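Quick entry between incubations.
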Amino acid sequence: MEFGPHLMLASLEGAVIASVLVLTSMGLSIVFGVMRVVNVAHGEFYMLGAVLAWYVTSLLGGHPAVGFVAALVAAPLLVGAIAASADRVILKHLKYDPDRTIVATIGLLYIIQQTTLMTFGPDARPVAPPFNHRLALPWFEFGDSGFAMYWPWGLSTTSYKLFVIAAAAVVLIALWLLITRTKIGLIMRATQQDSETAQAFGIPVGRVYSMVFGLGAALAALGAVLVVPIQQAHYLMGADPLLLSFIVVIIGGLGSLPGTVVAALLIGMSDGIISVFFSPTLAKIIATFLVAMVLVWRPQGLFGRSVP
Amino acid sequence: MSNGTSKKTGLNRRTALKGMGAGALLATGALPGSLGFAQAQSSAPIKIGFQKHATGIGAAYGRWYDATTQAAVKRINDMGGINGRPVEIVIEDDGTDPKRGAEVIEKFANQHEVDVAFGTLFSHVVIGSAPRAGELKLPYFVVSEGHHVASGMLNRYTLQPGITDVKSQVQSMAPFVANNLGKKVTMIFPDFAFGHDHRDFFSAAIEAQGGEVVAKIAVPPAETSFTRYFPQIPRDTDVVYHVMVGPAVLTFVKELGEFFGPSRPEIFGFIDSLEAVDINSPGLEFLEGTYFWEGHPRHAQKDNSEYDTAYRAAVGVDDRGASVSDPKDVSTYAHMFGCWETLNVIKAGMETADYQGPADRAKLIEAVEAMTDMPHSLDHPQGAKLFNGKTHQVFGSQHISKVTDGTLTVEHTASIEDGMYEDEVDYTAQSF
Amino acid sequence: MTLNAKSATLHLSVLAALVALFFVLPPYHSGNLARIMVLAIYAMGYNILFGYTGLLSLGHAMFFAAGMYGFGLSVNLGGLPLPLAFLTGMACAAALAAVTGFLALRTSGVAFMIVTLMFAQTAYLVVLYFGTYTRGDEGFVIQSADRMIMGVDLTSEGARYVAALLLFSACFLTLARIIRSRFGRTLVAIRENEERARMLGYDTGAHKLKAMILSGLIAGVAGAAYAMLFGYVGATFATVQYSIFPLLWVLLGGAGTTIGPLLGVFFMFYLIDFSSSLTTAYMLVAGVVLVLLTMFAPQGLMGEMRKRVFAWLP
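Done. Structure below.
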């Protein structure tokens, strides 16, 4: 494939990856920002979202769209509830101590993974997309006969992939409205800035924490429901999103939600675009190293204010 | 960090097989008196340690390797066991991890005190475990299809008598690909050792047939989306050769189809890209008319051998290679026969060596090394095999199937000779 | 008894117990113990940086792997004799730690976690990229014939145990000494309050870099020892999972204690081994135990001991 179309294809693919990454990262970013804990089990909430989507769609049957819409609602709610109760039972008891939370969430990760393996099994299971059409894409060329449009071999995407990008954007806007325009958002921001003062002003910090933890997990699950018709539900699928969203949150700047969005786009897109220029594994090496170097030269992240 | 356990092993860890039951005990008593006076000792079960990928990336394979193993042991016990003794399988989970794999081998040798160990599929677990098996002098029968055994990397205690290796498989595919599909091949493979073996062995083999590999696309491990790599496929490619492993295989094949749309080149893949996946999954329609290597044809053929039919019944797999209790639960059919056949080789080896206990382990290995022809039978339902005692590797026929109306139909069977290559090691020269 | 004498008695009795256990334990468990000691070296190396200096790295697998590959490749490709290969492995780990430290120590806190994590990912991919030499994920075997040191066959159970014990003791005693030294106390000062340590005139940057190199070096010793004693080198040991293990072991055993790492590895190993003999769902058991432990023993096993019984524990 020629360079131009290849770049366009890689960018499109990168955009799909980035869209899902934005959602999982926002989930981690909110938890990290408000509660200051590293949730190692975040990827498992993502995985649970995908697995529940499979259960919901295969239970309902009928047209794939029915199951998909149901999953889009049910999976994040269920996962959010599981996470909120984990917060109540475990994290609250640890007083959100950073080190102990790491071990406890590793424990949680084992529990969730093993339970999924025992019930859902080790196979990767597909979920049918609500709609899916291959869309061949045109490319423009300035040749002998002037400006011409043609259809390069292989340059295509699917309607569902475009839907994922749009859906992620909608969720992002809704989230932004929630945080900036509602009372819940105000309470969250107050708790983030100073939980003790917030408590003094009568904000039930414990309940806010549970809600935030649930919301973070629900966002991860939502990202997974969107991605599962492209990929498949598998009990080990949580590891990659965990690492990537963790990286995104830090690169974006701790506690900066716009930073998280920009970093997710940057990392999602760069992975695709660098692969145009180098052999795949070399591209990964370069992308990983560059991201690390960004932090070396800007330890507070792209949008962070001071060293955390 | 990745761990869990399959539900199918929900029973007891030390699955003392009930299959032996009263019948087998009777059979034991009815055997010729060659067992002598050591009645108490001789009726103790022969313990076979099964290193199982119950958790980790290999769990989908582990579940089916387990099912096949249980079926094979039940059959052996129904026929009177080995040397009149019942067979007991001891399962330990290796987590598909080479460190845990080596620990499990130690546990087999020193705690469970098994007679032999067997079962592993993933190459890194085999290679991580084999040194310990050699040091503990525990015969280690792997079912891995890796070239590690025949390459001479391992040791005298490690054997692969039940499944052919990747070098042999790949090499025997080249004539068919070059003569029927095209000369210009683009290879897509995972960027780790298993993929590199495909790349190197196939490149050499296709050149010998007058073809060439025009592009080699190595996909990094743990990748979950693939479309961005496909533009590297040159336009003049006649054949795309793909082999992919891991949980993302279905995504890979789907995206390959979406990339090409209506105008695809010929596609030839290793069924590894679709093991445990239903070929009629949504999004795989484009596979119609493409070709697959299959070690053991997943779908029962028109002229199916009686052995394959009986084997399917014993393992609990239907004519589509799926579980009889759940047609959506597709097995790893192209590989798991290796467990069945390996156990039968162990049985035959123990009987030849008149195996009595761990002291006879060297005799057992010599007995297996002396094996050559293994005829097509219920012991070897995949087909006839030829064992090379020097390289500890078995050779067999390979199948190429074409997807026709959603069914994998065998188009070509490569002979045992097509997969032969020169010896790279002589394990029999090593001391015990 | 003085503090120093108490501490010396404690450390020596741990080593004496390890010697005695070899004669008491059945072969399966003494084999496990040899492996536990090697992994405990890794955890001790990690503890220098995390437990004493307060820097949480998520990339120590790259140092473990550097020791492992430095050793393994120089035996298999370079044909070096064992002691020299071992030193090569250590040098590789220390050099990598120096470079990583030089860059990553510009950051702190969570940014340090991520930078080390990404460097380790890079290192893992480099191992795969040079598959021609490393055999990628599959790894390679170090043949038994090459695992002889001064006529001693390291593949025998006894020699392996002795070698593991010697390496463990060397690291254990050296580290116990370093912790008590001026250098070690400065590290603790940095952990408690870096600003204040700097005000007191300590070059905290140089101290952190030294701690990083020491930590990486010890992790490299563990990697080279694993390859030497168990005969296998593979990319699995460079994955994130193996960066998280030492963190888990140290937190379980008690961060910032000399015995904690050994205890953490021991506990985790037998937790998996024992629960897997009871049930196939052993990771579920392990997960529940981890959660309960953090809830009811927040300082780790040795940390709780220090809090409740031995306040003087090093």
